[in-house]
Amino acid sequence: MKKRMWREESVMFLSVLKWFLLATLIGIIVGLSTFVFLKGLGYGIRMANEIPYYLAFLPFAMVISVLIVKKCAPGAEGHGTEKVIEAVHRFNGKISAVVVPVKLIATIVTISFGGSAGKEGPSAQIGAGLASAFSDIFRFSDNARKKLVICGISAGFAAVFGTPVAGALFGIEVLVVGQLMYDVLFPSFIAGITAYQVTHALGIGYFYKPLHFSPVFSEMFFIRVIIAGIVFGLVSFLFIETMKVFKKGMGLITLSIYIKAFVAGVIMALFGYFVTTNHLGLGVEHIESMISGSHACWYDPILKTLFTSLTLNAGGSGGVITPIFYVGAASGGLYGQICNLDSSTFAAIGMVALLAGAANTPVAASVMSIELFGPEIAPYAAVACVISFLMTGHRSIYPSQVLGMTKSNSIKSTVGKEMSAVETITDPENKTALKYLKMMIRGKKKKK
Questions:
Q1: For the chain, percent of residues with pLDDT exceeding 70
Q2: Which of 176, 347, 361, 439 measures 20 to 30 Å from 328, CA to CA?
C-alpha cells in the first residue's frame, strides 16, 4: 500500500513539474508575441492618425486584410478566439503556423485605419498558433497539444488585458458552456501569469480603475443590480443576434468579398468624416472615459454593435471582446444615468457582465471585475454576470462553443453539440417557474 501511494505521489509530482515547465515556456512565448502585437498595433494606430484624412484609406485597408487572409491563411479569418475554439474541438488544437503572422498583420491593418474590432482575439489566436507549432516541433500527443493551445488562449487573454487570473479562467471556461476544464487549470494559471509578467516587464501598460465606493446595502440597490443584469443579458442577446444577421446578410450578397469589404470601408469612413469616429477603431479610450464617469449617449452601444458586425463580417480582422467591453460600458453608463445611480460603477459592471453573457464566461468575467476595478465591486458584478449569462440563453458570440449544460430545467436543449447546432424547446412537462408565476398572479387577484 505504501509503495503504491509513493508511486502515485511521484507520478503527480512529475506531472506538476512537467506542466509547470511547459506552461511557463508557452507563457513566455505568448507574452513576447503579445508584446510584439500590441507594440505593432500601437505603432500602426499612431502612424495612421498622423496621415491627413486617414479614414480615406479604410476601404483599402479592409480589402488588404481580406486579401492577406484569403491568399495566405484562410484559418485566420473572423475574430480569432472563435477559430481557436473550433480548432480545439474539431482538430485537436491543430493550427497552422502561418496563421500567426497573417493574423498579426491583418489585424493591425484593419484597426489602424478605423475598423471596429478588438485586440484580444488576435492575441489569443496568435498565442494558440504558437502553442500548436511548439507542440508539433516537439511531437506532443493530440491531448497534450490541446492543453497547450488552451494555455495559449489563457496567456493571450491575460497578457492583452493585464488580467492573469481572469485570463487563465477564460481559457478553460470559454470552450464548453457551463463547465470548467479542471485538467488544464494548473497550466493555464501558470501560462497566464507568466505571459502577463513578460508583457508587463517589457513595458506594456494596462488600464486599472479601482472603484472605491461603499454603497449602503439595501434591497432597492440590490434589485437595481439584478435588473441591470437582466438588461445586460438582453444587450448581449442583441449583440450576438446582430452579428448573426450581418453574417447571414453578407452571405446573401453575391458580390465579391473584396467589393463587400471595400463598400463596408466606405460606409464607415463616410460616417467617421461626417458624424463621429467614436465608434470606429479599438475604442479603448472611450471605454476608459465611460468607466471614469463620462456620460454615454443612447446610440453608443447601437452604433458600436453595428460597426463591429460590419467590420468583422465584411472581412476585417480583429477580436470581438473589446467591442463587447465598449457596448457593455456604454449600456451600464446609460443604465446608471437613467436610474440616477453612479454611472461609473454601472459602466464597470456592464463591461464585465456583457462579456459573461456574450461569451458564456461568468466566472472569468466576475474575477476580471476584481482585477480591473477592485474587490468592492465584486459582489454586485458577480450577480450581474451570472444573470447576464443566464439571460443570453443558449447562444454565443462563439458558435463553436460546446453546450455543456442547460441553463433552465424548463428548456430542453441538445447538450454536447456546438452552439451553432443547438436546438431548444420549452419542456411541456416542466413548467414549474411558469406555474409558480401564475399562482402568484392569481393569489394577488384573490386578495384584491
A1: 91
A2: 176
> What does the alpha-carbon distance between residue 61 and residue 39 come to, in Å, rounded to a whole number?
19
Identity of residue 148: L
Rounded Cα distance, 439 and 444, in Å: 9
Q: What span, in angstroms and rounded, lies between the C-alpha atoms of 73 and 256? A: 18
* Beta-bridge partner residues of 403: 177
Same fold, 2-201 and 219-391: yes
Q: For the ranges 74-78, 156-160, 430-434, which has the lowest average pLDDT? A: 430-434
The torsion region of residue 204 among left (phi > 0), alpha (psi -120 to 50) and beta comes to beta
Angstrom distance (rounded) from CA 375 to CA 271: 40
Bridge pairing between strands 424-426 and 411-413: antiparallel
DSSP per position, 311-344: HHHTT---BSHHHHHHHHHHHHHHHHHHTTS-HH
Tell me which CATH code domain 2-201 carries.
Answer: 1.10.3080.10
> Which tens digits make up the pLDDT trace of 48-104?
988 888 999 999 999 999 999 888 877 667 667 788 888 888 888 888 888 888 888
The answer to whether residues 321 and 365 touch, using CB atoms and an 8 Å cutoff, is no
| Amino acid, res. 248 | K
Residue with cell 486579401: 67
Give 424's DSSP letter.
E
Class of CATH domain 219-391: mainly alpha
AA letter at 177: V
Cβ atoms 278, 299 nearer than 8 A: no
Q: Let me know: does 198 contact 31? Beta carbons within 8 Å.
A: yes
pLDDT for residue 103: 86
